[in-house]
Every structure is written in structure tokens, then in C-alpha cells.
Amino acid sequence: VQLVESGGGLVQPGGSLRLSCAASGFTFSNYAMSWYRQGPGKERELVATISSDGGYTNYAGSVKGRFTISRDNAKNTVYLQMNSLKPEDTAVYYCNLARNPFTSWGQGTQVVVSA
């Protein structure tokens, strides 16, 4: 199993980023996927979830209306479009299964929101 996150970077408050997660080693289209994040000195938290077919999504209250999760099962990739970014969104972002996440996480992608 391999999960490779990308797309992070430094962005000013109010800006946007699109994160990608390329998955391999399992039947991606069979599984609901989630994005998680871990901010400095904080526990890892669930950010957004998408069902296996993309028909259902759910978001943490702190990102609802600003972030959009999507997936392309043909490319084994899940995305996170992040708009109206705030300093409190600063974190390392990871993708993993929505239920029973793999014990081996990817390296994550760092997002820093700062003026």
C-alpha cells in the first residue's frame, strides 16, 4: 500500500491550494477515503470524507464551505480543494481510508497559511 500526498505549500490567508493523494496497492475504488491533518502540537484530525463512488461527502465543521473533497477512481487519486485558507489550517495533510485507516501513513504534504 502506498499513499503519496502532494500539492502543499506556503499560501497567504484567503488563498487556495489543491492537494492530491495518489493511492496504490489496494482496490482504490472500493473504499471511502478521507483527508486528515495534524497541526503543530495538535492531534491528527479528520478533515473530509468521500464515499467510494464519490456520491457522498462529509466535512469537519471547521472547513465546511471552504474545502471540497473529490476523487478520480480511474486515476486512483483523491483531491482536496482548499479555499479561503486561514492560519489555523496550517498543518501536515494526509489521506487514508475513511474507516480502519492503514497503519502505514504517507509522508503527508505541508500546508502553511501565513502572511
What does this structure look like?
- The protein is mostly beta strands and 115 residues long.
- The chain is built from no helices and ten strands.
- The protein has strands spanning 2-6, 9-11, 17-24, 33-38, 45-50, 57-59, 67-72, 77-82, 91-97, 109-113.
- The protein has a six-stranded mixed sheet, with no helix packed on it.
- Strand 7 (67-72) and strand 8 form a beta hairpin.
Index terms:
single chain; 115 residues; 48% strand; globular
Q: Strand order, biggest sheet?
A: 2-10-9-4-5-6
Runs with pLDDT <50, length 5+? none
Distance between the termini: 37 Å
Backbone shape: globular
What's the SSE pattern?
Answer: EEEEEEEEEE
Q: How does the helix and strand content classify structurally? A: mainly beta
Sheet of most strands: 6 strands, mixed
Secondary structure: number of strands: 10
Query: In percent terms, what proportion of residues is strand?
Result: over 45%
Specify the helix fraction band. under 10%
Query: What's the average pLDDT?
Result: 97
Number of helices: 0
CA-atom Rg in angstroms: 13 Å
Short description:
The protein is mostly beta strands and 115 residues long. Helix content is 0%, strand content 48%.
